[in-house]
Design goal:
The protein is an alpha/beta fold. The chain is 30% helix and 16% strand.
Length: 326
């Protein structure tokens, strides 16, 4: 609990969330002082002048991660709330003296919807139909049923478990990987990272839902894609840096993978000359797989709940374990 809750100061480092000041923050916390900084050049200076106790931040192009890190290292900061799940844009968080929390679970069901929907779309041949419609072609495409197929979910956090639930309800065999293998609802078999190559070979669909850390960077490369079943589908709703994009491209061009979906990339926005734009059977979305129309508001609602706990001296929700990456 802060020494004087009525003097708590919150700095918002994001242009998307400051529009909810009046109804969700200022009205609910009249004794807390809120300020917003939406210019990356001024982030550190603003933090130094304002001396915030709390920082609310989301990954955004208006304030690059390195500039946010400088603001977050101001000694007055006790707590940093990340609006989102991934905190790779401000790593390493071990440099922060403040507690770091994220919004894991807030949008999980919506990302789960997207991943499951893309599994169906690729299985039913919809990407081919989109191209045929443009070309005014009438050509049936063989479709696959997902029932009875095996899905491997790498990362069984909130999103991974939501995907597992949807797959199990569709009569799929669900296997998974997590740092600490434990029995998990809707998952038939759980292994650790040492089991990755073996489990990749069992899966008709591979879904990636693990955070980007030093341990997971470039985790899926040439050997891992080669270990996947011929004709398997790959879906990435996590972070681009976890995947060797050259190896993914090669697996698609060779036909080893039947298709893939990626919402995230090593460099974002994806450069126009990147060969992934024209990779066969790859569906691309611009890091929007959970961006429902009121996503900013949902994050601020969660932050307000955590702020209430902070002011009352209660344990914060979703404290990030810097070593394990979640």
């Amino acid at each position: 609990m802060p020494e004087n809750p009525s003097s708590t100061k919150v700095l918002v480092l994001d242009q998307a969330c400051d529009k909810y000041f009046d109804d969700l923050l200022c009205a609910a916390f009249p004794h807390v002082r809120f300020e917003a900084c939406v210019n990356g050049v001024d982030a550190q200076r603003h933090a130094s002048d304002f001396q915030p106790d709390v920082i609310l931040s989301a990954k955004s192009r208006n304030i690059p991660g390195p500039m946010k890190r400088l603001a977050m290292q101001i000694p007055s900061v006790n707590w940093i709330q990340i609006c989102g799940v991934g905190f790779d844009h401000v790593q390493p968080i071990t440099d922060f003296s403040a507690t770091v929390t994220n919004c894991a679970g807030v949008l999980s069901e919506f990302l789960g919807e997207t991943i499951f929907g893309m599994m169906l779309a690729m299985s039913y041949g919809f990407p081919a139909y989109f191209h045929q419609q443009i070309a005014k072609q009438w050509k049936p495409v063989p479709r696959r049923s997902i029932s009875g197929k095996t899905v491997l979910i790498i990362g069984l956090g909130n999103v991974g478990r939501d995907v597992a639930r949807r797959c199990k309800q569709s009569n799929m065999r669900v296997i998974g990987i997590r740092n600490r293998p434990i029995d998990t609802e809707f998952v038939d078999k759980v292994g650790g990272m040492d089991d990755l190559i073996t489990l990749l070979g069992e899966a008709d669909y591979v879904c990636l839902h693990t955070p980007l850390t030093d341990q997971t960077r470039a985790m899926l490369g040439k050997a891992e894609f080669a270990a996947m079943k011929p004709g398997a589908f790959f879906l990435n709703g996590a972070r681009g840096g976890i995947v060797d994009e050259g190896a993914l491209l090669a697996a698609l061009e060779s036909g080893h993978l039947a298709g893939a979906y990626s919402d995230v990339f090593e460099t974002e926005p994806l450069p126009p000359d990147n060969p992934l734009w024209t990779a066969p059977n790859l569906i691309i979305s611009p890091h929007t797989s959970d961006s429902i129309d009121d996503w900013e508001r949902r994050y601020v609602v969660f932050f307000a709940t955590n702020l209430e706990r902070y002011l009352n001296g209660e344990p914060l929700l979703n404290v990030v374990n810097a070593k394990l990456g979640y």
